[in-house]
Amino acid sequence: MAERLLDVTGLTTTFRTGKKTSVTAVNNVTFSLDRGEILGLVGESGCGKSVTSLSIMGLFEDTAGKVASGSIVFDGEDLTKLTTKQMRSIRGKRISMIFQNPMSSLNSCMRVEAQLIEAIRLHNDVSKSEARQRASKMLSAVGIPDPEQTLRSYPHQLSGGMSQRVMIAMALCCEPEMMIADEPTTALDVTIQAQILELMKDIRSRNNTSILLITHDLGVVAEMCSRALVMYAGRIVEEASVEELFASPIHPYTVGLIASVPKLGSGVTSLPSIPGSVPDLSAMPQGCKFAPRCKYAQAVCRQTEPELAPVPGGNGRKCRCHLFGKEEGKEAQA
Amino acid sequence: MSEETAKVLDQEPLYADAEALPTAQNRVKAFIKKFSKRKAALVSLVFLVALIVVAVISPYIVPYDPAAPDYSHMLEGPTAQHILGTDEFGRDVLSRVMVGARLSLFCALSAVVVGTFLGTVLGLLAGYYGGILESLIMRGSDVLFAFPDILLAIAIVAIIGPGTVNVIIAVAVFTVPSFARIMRSATIQVKGSLYVEVARSLGCPDRRILWTHIFPGTIQSMIVNFTMRIGTAILAAASLSFLGYGADVTVPEWGSMLSTARNYMTTAPHLVYVPGVLIFLTVLAFNLLGDGLRDTLDPKLK
Amino acid sequence: MLRYAVKRILSAIPLLLVISLLIFMFIHLIPGDPARIIAGKEATSYEIENVREQLGLNEPLLKQYGIYMAGLLTLDLGNSIRNGATVFDTIAPRFVPTIQLTLLAMLWATLLGTLLGIMAAVRRGKTLDYVSMIIAISGISAPSFWLGLMLIQLFCVKLGWLPVSGLTTWKSYILPSFTMGCGVMAIIARFTRSSMLENLKEDYIRTARAKGLGEFFVILRHAYKNSLIQVVTVTGLQIGGLLTGSVMAETVFSINGLGRLLVDSIGFRDYKVVQALLLFFSLEYIVINLIVDLLYGVLDPKVRYD
Q1: Quick one: C44 and C152 in the same domain?
Q2: By CA distance, what is A216's nearest residue in B?
Q3: CATH architecture, range B35-62+75-297
Q4: Which residues contact B207 (CB under 8 A, 6 or more apart)?
Q5: Best CA proximity match to B226, nearest among B161, B149, B289
Q6: Does the residue A269 lie in any domain?
Q7: What is the pLDDT of residues A113-131, one digit of tens each?
Q8: Rounded to two decimals, what is the model's pTM?
Q9: Chain B partners of C240 at a C-beta cutoff of 8 Å?
Q10: Do A107 and C300 touch (CB under 8 A)?
Q11: Is the same domain home to C49 and C166?
């Protein structure tokens, strides 16, 4: 049995939109992450997956967002109860993060070495030259062929793939127990994508680092994760092992997502897509949030919101749908 | 695979309601709604409209003849008869600043109008035709830019001599380059847009493309710059008058009133306060209005 | 970097030439007979002829330009009409106070403007933001000469703390440099704020925070460093505003600097001196802009390694 590292329970994050109004971006999200596990968090843009990661990191300085309720227990400690200072000593040291746009995520005015050394010395009591040596080692560890040259470079002199490697090196330089990767390959070329994903897998097996992988790309999930969460409109709608998720998706939204991924040799000329779009956070439909776009929606779906309930016979599998297990749901898989 | 998924997933939210469609009328409505939220800009607008009205009708509503001396009431502070006091000849300060508003505003406005017109035409030509014409115009405005603001005006007045018309010319000249630059870059931007390409491919003559297609696309940044520039122009004109290059000192004008008031600073400080505060508030109002317009019309402009 | 620097310096030369030509043309741009205007309305024909002789207006234009350019290179700019001293000797002693005041004004305006701008950006939408921006927009809107008069009224006439005019003690520098720097301070504050707001939204700020870096360093080491590139440009351009400010402040505070000399010389139609001063001011402006451009190259790695 793997050791539990992170337990998110009932996480609800809101953003203030006016003096008295606010919207809920993440609603009652519960999940857990084991040591050494790669967990996928899947959903369309705006579904709350990035906000979930920012909630864990407590990175709301410049926004009107805050964790309204719920707990985020990391290695026995509730992160929502920590002071700013305590939180800062966890950020970058025990939980680190990499982002979607590696080029803009590095400070264009600072050399790579300055940014890496800053990250190292922030959490380790080492001299500048020691930090630099460590930075150089980190860069070779993430597969950068000429670390010395890269250290002296400015971000604009690096390619996208290189920048993401530097970002990963920066995220790993304090040997964190957990890494949050928010769309780490979306901005990269396909061949580079594969390399970066391989690197992350490598890191996981070398250091037993847990990775929370946030993506809209089901292919990446299939490639990387053992388990995945599907989010829609700030809620988890389905949780399953990756095998089960792809073999027999239950929630109509998951079904739609998987159906919209093209398969080689399937002979299909047009891809099915999910009609409509994600509901506006400030104007959420009553009942199931997916009901307006769901072709199986019935009266009950539009009135009451279903619970995230365990699927009978599923190995820890959960789904948020009134109709799961019914005939209509099955048909869609065919 | 991921590209297709991304396409499906990144669908733009649909705005079904027709009111969101940008028709001209709705745009004006949206502008008024957004603008009315900017309290400072709104207050400034009201103040400026009031000021302009007062300036226009001032000859009919002044309590005293602004030029009539009254040697029994010289350099008096505010009293019941003279709310803002009297100057060194016993002339009513209130009447003088009211009439003075005409000249001060007229000077600044006409200078900016002339400068805007020239700058706009030059900028449009430079941006649209490019080539030698563009380098000529833009290098010319670089040269004008190399003389800092008022220094250029001072230099011009030094050449052509003092006087109201000359101050207007001087202020207009230093307004030209800023407009030429803004218009040029705006024109280059609009020129690349599809509707101008279409117009050109339909055989539309240059002049028509410039005025009916390109010019309207640049009008927002123009309005903002115009408003801001009036503030600068009032300051410049007042500075020139203060230095003694402006209108005849007997004519009431805010800058020249300050210039003479300087000599009575210890005995009659109200002579310094009144026109100074008026210049300050007027320029402030134009700047706040410009800020408000910029934020509502053209958020990209800095 | 070196190539960039050389390119910038070379590109300033044609501008300099055009400006010196314009300033040479200056006298010839005066409508009508310049000698008659310079000599004054009541001048006799003998006096007018004398002025013409003095200004070398009888020579062919090309020769005049040759003499002028040769004079520029040897710093021999002719003689002042007012007192017959050489233009160089007239200007030289006025140089120091203007430069002192300009530097002082620059210093406090940059420091305070930057501080206000950063504070306003960090506390966006809060009281501190509003207060800073009210100060800034007031600073832009207040006529500097009026501000000077009000300061004299308060600190010299009412309170008697500071001297009214001249530059004798350190105290006498306070008001003029404050008057000169106000507008520049305001512009720097506004610009720093908007630039900081933009930079604080950038991805690398989130990265810095995700590292566990404290807010203070996030703002100074990351956001401000990027803003600095933009702020330096604006600050440089504003030095032109300071030169103008020196004209107004020196007039208000009766300081014998270059600005006041310019005003006086125009009054006396001392065109040789006016010519030299205009040349000096625009030269100073161009040189400062050049320095700013070079500084820009130092600060922005993208330019430096282009």
Answers
A1: no
A2: B6
A3: Orthogonal Bundle (1.10)
A4: none
A5: B289
A6: no
A7: 999 999 999 898 899 999 9
A8: 0.81
A9: 148-149, 151
A10: no
A11: no
